[in-house]
Specification:
Blueprint: H1 2-13, E1 20-21, E2 31-33, H2 46-49, E3 54-61, H3 64-67, E4 70-76, E5 82-88, E6 96-97, E7 105-111, H4 112-121, E8 128-129, E9 135-141, H5 146-158, E10 161-165, E11 172-175, H6 177-188, H7 202-205, E12 215-216
Length: 220
Amino acid sequence: MVTVAVTMAVGGFVGCHSSGTGTHQQRPAKVRKTRSAGEATGGLTALSAAAGSGGACVFVKPDGAQKFGHVGWGFRVTGTDQWVYGAVENPTNKLYTPPGGDIGAWHAQGSYARMLSDMSRDAHYPGKVKHPYTRYRCVSSSAGDVDHARAMIHTVESRGFLVGIDPKTGELTSRDCLDATYDVLHAYRARHLTYAPHLDIPNVWVETLWDWSDHTLTRR
């Protein structure tokens, strides 16, 4: 009973639960590559245009998870105009899903403009979305460990979802949207990436990203 109470309490005070509603059909993690030729570039920052540079972004749903927040990630494939981006959406709202289960994990690849468009529309969300991504913060860098970040994507998409007591270890911990975002961008070696402890609150953590730009994300 104590374990259940602690798990429920933790679940009520951390983010990353699904903010979607409606019917959801289970599907595996996916990757999509989109062409950037001919896409609009109006309003893009220097981050998207600097040749050969790297960069990282955090996308935020401030109203997600009972207003504790939900986050996704993006990073630039250095030396190209391509970005890899994604999230762990947890559309089932379960506090625990074992490895290999459906956690709404997805990632895609495309230009900076396509990344912003996809995130603003929740283009890859597995179900009907109630709260979209409406904010994003980015940081530039001279390089990035793309291979390591890609490997971490596979890890976070296959390790399941957890907020509360780990049934295998008995540890109070998490494997949620913020953990996935932090782990991928840490693997990429994003600059000024604030450490995100397990069970941290997304809306609190995103305010600690020192020297990251801060933008409103509108549907496009």
